[in-house]
Amino acid sequence: MHLGHQHMLRRLKDEANARSLPTALLTFEPHPREFFTRSNPPARLSTLRDKLNILQASGLVDYVFVFRFNQRFASMSAQDFIQDVLVRDLKTRYLLIGDDFQFGAARKGNFELLSACPDFVTEAMPSVLVQGERASSTLVRERLAAGDLAAANALLGCSYQISGKVMHGQKLGRTIGFPTVNVHLPHLKPALQGVFVVEVDTPYGRKGGVASLGVNPTVSSSSDYKLEAHLFDFAGDLYGQRVTVHFLKKLRDEERYDNLPALVAQIERDAASAHTYLTSLQREQA
């Protein structure tokens, strides 16, 4: 949820309080772009679970309505969406949309069509600029893909994060002195790839570490993406537990090495770099 979303939800909350109405958010699962580009979907920034947890933590939304985006929904006309979903199902009285919002079959619905509906008031939220650029999910994806975590996190107002359940892996890390937490990734394409300095929220508290997000080309021939984090000064059992990985800084792109000793030597350098960064961060925050 980037800063544009956060400003929008605060505005919605203010309007709801003034009208003595609850706040509600309508979202789709899967994302419409995933539905229409199944062979090459855009990178998913967050899971539905993460999205709901973030919204709950914000305290700005009373209800979230998740609509299954399927062929029937994709074929719904803009006018039917207004009458069947907004008026009949949600009983909308005030609607706040983004300034580029389009909806309905062939994306024919827009602000003008919504404004013509007498059942509710419609307003469009102006764009929110962050460092001179319009805050948007597309821009967050671009910054993450480029490895520019500082810019991505500025757009988000916090560190980018991925949460998931800890799964059993190949257990290669423990044999080379770097046991890892293997986090299940529910989506095929992550928004970022490489080796990163991270902090991981666990049932035992937040732990610093170094993480790899990619296909592990040196030790695996699979094209499946994997998120593996080595936690510093930690030896607990996290299997089956949910953890949240916060990405703080990208160290490098993923690489293929000729042999295991070369990979281990690079992991040692990555861990040292991550230690140095986390130590400097702790000093700044002290």
Task: Write a brief structural summary.
With 286 residues, the chain is an alpha+beta fold. It is 34% helix and 26% strand.
Explained architecture:
This protein has helices spanning 3-19, 32-36, 48-58, 71-74, 78-89, 111-115, 137-145, 149-156, 260-285, and strands at 24-29, 63-68, 94-98, 121-125, 129-130, 133-134, 160-167, 181-183, 194-202, 205-214, 226-231, 242-252. It is of the alpha+beta class and 286 residues long. It folds into two domains: 3-134, HUPs (Rossmann fold); 160-285, Riboflavin kinase-like (Elongation Factor Tu (Ef-tu), domain 3, Beta Barrel). A six-stranded antiparallel barrel has the order 7-8-11-10-9-12. The protein has a two-stranded parallel sheet with strand order 1-2. Strands 3-4 form a two-stranded parallel sheet. Helix 7 runs antiparallel to helix 8. The longest helix is centred in the C-terminal third of the chain and has 26 residues, at 260-285. The mean pLDDT is 91. Belongs to the ribF family. Keywords: ATP-binding, FAD, Flavoprotein, FMN, Kinase, Multifunctional enzyme, Nucleotide-binding, Nucleotidyltransferase, Transferase.
